[in-house]
């Protein structure tokens, strides 16, 4: 803990007791565990250790990323980002119209919120930032030299939000349970400005598309690009799935299905609910993976602010003179302005009560956007069973649950496979017991067994 960090109320123990009675019971943060026995039965060897995410049931995210539903304008995100009474400001990935659902969008939204606050705040004002994820931490950094008194209120007992690095000395790199993948860079291309301060990354440059019958040609984004281009001229917004069909793609085709499974791991939603007028960013053939520690990075960004963990905000009362926040502890504190960075899922689920209610434009935007699902499972092998050096694996055909895998062995020297699953499949995956989830993951790896082992 830094010296400026504190816990509201008496001691951490007392606070913990209070929180239990005031807030929904969070699912325990996943921890690195040795694979429990008895081991599931599958031809794929059991890993030495497994860690998985459960964002779908986490009360402080209620899903993974926002998405734009059919018939919803991207402008909904701009409406959500509009300040209310010059006192309540919003940031977070869902408020960024250009790069929603991404690390980049979250950072950009935090920068924008800081600019907006700086334009109106007088020296010495008290500013609260709700949420210590990428958006909140970036907003705090943007206010650092503005002569403002900044306090961060974070519900969890850690920083990072949906950028969650878990350190375990048995793993060669931090286990990233949330966002950690960035689009690959073309030769000579510089990372986006928003990415400049992020922890170190490694390149994942080689993809493998594998069916039960062997390797298949990569499909690329051409079918999606054609569908989206055609849909731009249609009189009404239609689902991305419908746009694909209308441009000649067969959704039953195993390669198209694998491409959509990959899309779901970044969009958080299936093509039958995604807007084709305002589609999500298309998946990249090449990626960069963050292999550093988000936690340390975000703490550094917030080093000039007072960081208050384990303090869920339950109510925001505001008028044109200021803001009063009620915490899960029952305590209330006053500020001049507040930046709300909580996930869309929390706003949709009524996790924070606004008084007076937010304007219709904000409530309309909150309800119009969708909150999608992404889950991830990390497997560590003492003795890797796979023979390929490819780093991004796609499972083509079959009915496997986890169809996108990242192979970190070439980058880290450690036998780490990361399974990523999106949309409805992710919601179902999150519902599984640990053993069931492990079995689903291992079964999904069958296409990647060496031929003699399969
Ligand atoms: C599994 C998964 C995989 C992803 N993969 C990628 C990827 O590969 N690439 C990519 O670019 N993006 C990815 N993303 C998205 C990316 O992680 C997010 O866009 C980004 O981290 C969101 O940051 P944020 O600050 O907007 O929200 P958050 O990180 O969610 O921060 C909000 C903070 O608010 C806190 N909070 C919630 N409720 C309250 C309350 N009542 N009071 C106080 N605090 C509260 C939360 O605890 C949290 O810390 C992924 C996300 C997930 C979940």
From TrEMBL:
This is Amine oxidase domain-containing protein. One of its GO terms (molecular function) is oxidoreductase activity. PANTHER family: FLAVIN MONOAMINE OXIDASE, LYSINE-SPECIFIC HISTONE DEMETHYLASE 2. PROSITE patterns: PROKAR_LIPOPROTEIN. SUPFAM superfamilies: FAD/NAD(P)-binding domain. InterPro entries: Amino_oxidase, FAD/NAD-bd_sf, Flavin_monoamine_oxidase. It comes from Microbacterium aerolatum. Residues 42-117, 301-450 form the Amine oxidase domain. Gene3D superfamilies: FAD/NAD(P)-binding domain.
């Amino acid at each position: 803990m830094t010296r400026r960090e504190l816990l509201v109320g008496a001691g951490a123990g007392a606070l913990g007791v209070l929180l239990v009675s005031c807030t929904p019971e969070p699912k325990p943060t996943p921890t690195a565990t040795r694979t429990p026995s008895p081991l599931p039965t599958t031809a794929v060897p059991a890993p030495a250790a497994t860690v998985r995410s459960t964002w779908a049931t986490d009360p402080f995210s209620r899903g993974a990323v926002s998405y734009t539903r059919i018939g919803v304008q991207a402008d909904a995100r701009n409406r959500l980002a509009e300040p209310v009474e010059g006192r309540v400001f919003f940031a977070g990935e869902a408020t960024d119209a250009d790069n929603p659902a991404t690390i980049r969008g979250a950072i950009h939204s935090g920068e924008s919120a800081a600019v907006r606050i700086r334009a109106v705040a007088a020296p010495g004002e008290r500013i609260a930032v709700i949420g210590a994820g990428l958006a909140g931490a970036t907003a705090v950094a943007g206010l650092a030299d503005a002569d403002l008194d900044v306090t961060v209120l974070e519900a969890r007992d850690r920083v990072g939000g949906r950028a969650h690095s878990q350190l375990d000395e048995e793993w060669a790199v931090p286990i990233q349970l949330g966002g950690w993948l960035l689009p690959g860079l073309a030769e000579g291309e510089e990372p986006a400005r928003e990415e400049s301060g992020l922890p170190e990354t490694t390149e994942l440059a080689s993809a493998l598309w594998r069916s039960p019958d062997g390797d298949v040609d990569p499909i690329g984004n051409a079918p999606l690009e054609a569908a989206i281009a055609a849909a731009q001229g249609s009189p009404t917004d239609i689902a991305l799935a419908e746009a694909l069909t209308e441009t000649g793609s067969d959704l039953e085709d195993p390669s198209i299905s694998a491409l959509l499974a990959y899309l779901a791991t970044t969009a958080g939603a299936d093509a039958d609910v995604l807007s084709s007028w305002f589609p999500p960013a298309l998946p990249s053939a090449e990626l960069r993976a963050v292999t550093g520690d988000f936690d340390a990075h975000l703490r550094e960004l917030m080093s000039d602010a007072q960081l208050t963990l384990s303090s869920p905000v339950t109510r925001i009362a505001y008028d044109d003179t200021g803001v009063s926040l009620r915490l899960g502890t029952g305590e209330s504190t006053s500020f001049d302005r507040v930046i709300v960075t909580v996930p869309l899922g929390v706003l949709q689920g009524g996790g924070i009560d606004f008084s007076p209610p937010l304007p219709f434009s904000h409530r309309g935007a909150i309800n119009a956007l969708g909150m999608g699902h992404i889950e991830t499972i990390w497997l560590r092998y003492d003795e890797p069973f796979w023979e390929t050096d490819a780093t991004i694996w796609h499972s083509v055909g079959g009915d496997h649950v986890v169809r996108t895998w990242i192979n970190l062995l070439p980058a880290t020297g450690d036998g780490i496979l990361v399974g990523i699953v999106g949309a409805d499949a992710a919601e179902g995956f999150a519902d599984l017991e640990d053993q069931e989830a492990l079995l689903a993951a291992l079964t999904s790896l069958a296409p990647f067994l060496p031929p003699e082992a399969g």
